[in-house]
Amino acid sequence: MAIITLTTDFGEKDHFAGATKGAIYSELPDVKIVDISHSISPFNIPEAAYIIQNAYSSFPKGTIHIIGIDAEINPENKHIAIKLDDHYFICANNGIMSMICSEIAPEKIVEINIHDKIQTSFPVLDVFVKVACHIARGGTLEVIGKNIPEIKPIKNIVPYVNDDKTQIIGSVIYIDNYGNVVTNIKRSFFETIQKGRDFEISARNYTFKKIHKKYSDIVNFDIPENKRHDEGRKLVVFNSGNFLEIAVYKSNSATVGSASTLLGLGLMDAVSIKFTPKPVIPQGMELPKKIHNVSDFE
Amino acid sequence: MAIITLTTDFGEKDHFAGATKGAIYSELPDVKIVDISHSISPFNIPEAAYIIQNAYSSFPKGTIHIIGIDAEINPENKHIAIKLDDHYFICANNGIMSMICSEIAPEKIVEINIHDKIQTSFPVLDVFVKVACHIARGGTLEVIGKNIPEIKPIKNIVPYVNDDKTQIIGSVIYIDNYGNVVTNIKRSFFETIQKGRDFEISARNYTFKKIHKKYSDIVNFDIPENKRHDEGRKLVVFNSGNFLEIAVYKSNSATVGSASTLLGLGLMDAVSIKFTPKPVIPQGMELPKKIHNVSDFE
Amino acid sequence: MAIITLTTDFGEKDHFAGATKGAIYSELPDVKIVDISHSISPFNIPEAAYIIQNAYSSFPKGTIHIIGIDAEINPENKHIAIKLDDHYFICANNGIMSMICSEIAPEKIVEINIHDKIQTSFPVLDVFVKVACHIARGGTLEVIGKNIPEIKPIKNIVPYVNDDKTQIIGSVIYIDNYGNVVTNIKRSFFETIQKGRDFEISARNYTFKKIHKKYSDIVNFDIPENKRHDEGRKLVVFNSGNFLEIAVYKSNSATVGSASTLLGLGLMDAVSIKFTPKPVIPQGMELPKKIHNVSDFE
Asked: Given CB atoms, is C184 within the 8 Å cutoff of chain B?
């Protein structure tokens, strides 16, 4: 039994998500429909790219993902379907898939061409649902579109590295429900540039010299609980999606504050990492082993 | 396998929607439950009427729709079940169904009378779920209620037309997730009054002389993308539910603004359409054919 | 077919809930997943305790409830699984279950010990899902944890009663979607202390001498509808979960106001009940029967 997921900016109130599900069940009564998110900010492509990248791979192979953001068709915004990592994605060719595609090459990309039969102001329901049900029934992409070699890229999604590789300049791509500030700097990219060096992460007026493994690593459990003041403390982690994240321990934007509210960081703001030059080693000396515990990023 | 949908003002946080689903699965383990919306504004009957009208017909025939808005029973607020267009609706008799029923005559309306056995402060769970499961098992409406001839109407839901049919005065019935302003003027109603005449739509201090087919019709794709300034431009369309809607291209109330925030339009505000008298045709002359392309509303 | 419910503070936007569902379906394609709530305030344990207590018992026996609040494992925050009332609960041992457990004794509590194989910064997905699927397949709690005698209690969740039992001092534990103010005073507790006496409920500067059976009991239906002014009127009820609740008839925080906004009541605020001493009965006299209609709380 196929699974179809929905990631949209429809919001929680409007009828769009409900109507889309009704249309799917009308074609395929036995399919499973899973909401990934309907609360993407309207027309926010980087947010949608981040959400779908982090959610899709938990689903079984063969899952079909409908992404309904900025989906109105026009001369510059075509509809596409992609097979990648044994998952299917149906969306507009507006850059949403470029984050996933920068890591895993698509097996197949088609530009959907079933529109001659469809006049619509609700393309997710009238086009994407039809394509998803076609795939769920075992249909191939070639039947509903023509092959194209590549997708439209999204701008400024990759962090910048200077020539001598002493600095990474990334940016904030997502603020999560806890107000944590997610950057576009991935763990693997960071490690490739770091090569064991010390570093300093800067965001606004704040600096960090350590990346923790998990949020509660900032707590000193040797101090009695009633004498600790850890809630509200800032830290840096690689989050569960392996993105560098500036967080606040047990944050809540509405009460104790969050990384976003306390540091004043919003979408597109810069976060930079400076690496310390490796110490010059005088002749005849040897560096002690394991000054830096790379696996700990300390 | 039956489908039961839920449209309520329970919100996303409270336990009410979850508990309702638990109660349904306790009676019918194999039913499908689909959320249409739980974010209707509390006690807002026109909003609920708009949502259910636009969502229900995408579902398969036979679907059962629970509408949990203002559902506490009292001498003036009875519970009803309606069969209409081969769908079932269970709700309070508070006007929610009058928008749908003004377009399609109900096949059957019953006032639910199973309450003698039920003392409840949670009628959706204790009454509506029981009725829905009864219908899902193939039960008839007569078993759970007595026939009534008509439902309670909702006030001011239909736009006003003046006597010489030169003006429609409608009102805002819904603000959607993009901040688009939806009026109660439907396409069919508009066309019936328009009869090909030119028109001017007024809302606050803004006027529009054209109704576009889709949002991106306002974009001139001949101008290079980086020289265009279309985001934030106002336009009028008939939306996917065929309601006249004042929209803003790629709107976002939190960033670039929306029709609601930029025009200052809220629920119940007036939107009027004035029609230009047809030009008097002097004797012996003929009007050129197709001055107005009615199908384009231009 | 097993049911797994989700109650978390993941919010509606992030990918966490979607990814969790994907992981469950990857293990168990035929399970049913039901969202109870993803909008618990971040790290708010009393809110989560209230939501799960009010939702769980509507589900069929055997249902498995994943509660993802403050779930990062650390020396003071272990993962547990509980069997209680023929339902299963999987959560951190942070007090979330103490509200339910204060009413119904758990059949079994285990501290989950499958973590040696799992390095995770997303414990709901990596640990709770594994445990839930193990239980759904018919596995026992002993396989995934070691028995522990009791759970961590939550502080200040029970109302205070003075020594001569003339006063209850409770507190606000939840504000619902309608802005209704829910206290921690349960109907059974209230009745045990009241013993038929008159009472006065105080919250901020407001007092109430009556507890209504339902919200619309405050309406006088003998007065014509257009002469009534009942929307916005304050009242006290026992809600559908049997908690004492200060409510406003047809409230809406954004428009007419709600109990929370109109009375200025927030989480943790005090709500007290003073009981009137029973009148002294002079010798030879008898009290008339049924001065107080206890069942009406009047």
From this structure: no
